Amino acid sequence: MKTNIEERACDLAVYIIENKATVRSAAKQFGISKSTVHKDLSERLQHINRALYVQVKEILEKNKAERHIRGGNATRRKYKGE
Predict the structure, then answer these.
(1) Least buried of 13, 18, 44, 55, by fewest C-beta within 10 Å?
(2) Nearest partner of 23 among 7, 39, 1, 43, judged by Cα
C-alpha cells in the first residue's frame, strides 16, 4: 500500500478512534505491519496532527492496559475448544 505517510497516519488514527480498534486489527485492515501502525501513531502522528494523536494515545493506552485480559480469554477459549 504505497501512499503518503502523513495521510496514512491520519487515516489509521481515524480508523482506531471510530472503531476503538487495536493496532493489530488496524494493521490487518490497512494491509501493513503492526510495527508500521505503531510507528505512524506513536511517532509520526504527534508531529502531523496533535489533536488526533491525543485521542489515539488514550485508546492505545487503554488497549495496552487490557491486553493481559484479552490474552487470558484467548487462552481460555483455546483450551475449552470454543
Answers:
(1) 18
(2) 39
